[in-house]
Amino acid sequence: MNQLEILRESLGQCDEIILDALLMRNRIVEDIMAYKKSNDLPILQPEQEAKQKEWLEKRMEKKRHKAEVEDVFRSITMNSKRIQSRKLFNYNIVLIGFMGAGKSTISEFLKNSFAMEVIEMDQIIGEREGMTISDIFEVYGEQYFRNLETNLLIEMQSKTNVVISCGGGTPMRECNVVEMKKNGRVVLLTAKPETILDRVKDSHDRPLIENNKTVPFIADLMEKRREKYEAAADIIIETDGKDELQICEELILRLRQMDNK
Ligand code: S3P
Questions:
Q1: Family per UniProt (predicted)?
Q2: CB-defined site of ligand 1, < 6 Å
Q3: Whose CA is nearest to atom 8 of ligand 1?
Q4: Comparing C-alpha atoms, which of 218, 256, 221 is closest to residue 235?
Q5: Residue 99 Cα to ligand 1 middle (Å)
Q6: Across 149-153, average pLDDT
Q7: Is 231 annotated to bind ligand?
């Protein structure tokens, strides 16, 4: 063997070690999940991720290839999250609720916690049409926008393990609810009108309330929609006074309870 062949053989041995370690790590991730489930512990433990980051930072201090190693660990962490989320949710999570109920915020939190893909319906529709939601309403009318929503929901049925963050009005159409449920569990997020007003007061991309940002108007529209929201929901989560972590833990627990049935 010449020097090059020897080096290549050593590299191959390294890869074997990495591969075995990765397989072992993934098994441990699954075992941790199972342990948390059977002992009713919270699935999300962000402090654990912070600890791992800190450990790596210390271990790699002033070392060569710090950025490269960190990149690999980022990828390992992402994949652990994916393993967890696929085990937890073999369907799509469809978030519904009034404007400002927290659909986008909770989607983002789920994305960070479980490396799940997020389909932000308003954003995708806006991008595809090359217009803001307000402009779509103004130029083509609400019906046109609602049809785009229905088509997008149908398109999403071919995916699995994604979070679909609906527009506030999406579940008002019965056909949309039918489409959501084909491959999704529907989670209704609720909040008091006062909370909603506080969350939406500074944004200007919601044509239905743009000129009526008041508690009575919001309360009235919310009441008109309540029955349809509740009929569409598999689970309902109140968001007032809770942080994202609490809301997501509740969401995970309630979805798991649905599955255990
Ligand atoms: C709407 C809610 C908005 C957006 C559009 C119509 C509604 O979405 O789809 O302005 O009918 O409630 P958000 O709930 O994300 O604000």
A1: Belongs to the shikimate kinase family.
A2: 99, 103, 122, 133, 167-169, 206-208
A3: 167
A4: 256
A5: 6
A6: 97
A7: no
Tell me the domains of the chain and their CATH numbers.
3-82 (1.20.59), 92-259 (3.40.50.300)
Task: Return the pLDDT at 231.
Answer: 97
Q: Is the pLDDT of residue 1 over 90?
A: no
| Residue reference for tokens 């909370």 | 195
224/216 Cα distance (integer angstroms): 12
Q: Using the structure block, give the residue that is written with the tokens 């009713």.
A: 40
Q: What is the pLDDT of residues 69-91, one digit of tens each?
A: 999 999 999 999 999 999 999 99
Q: How far is the CA of 235 from the centre of ligand 1 (A)?
A: 20
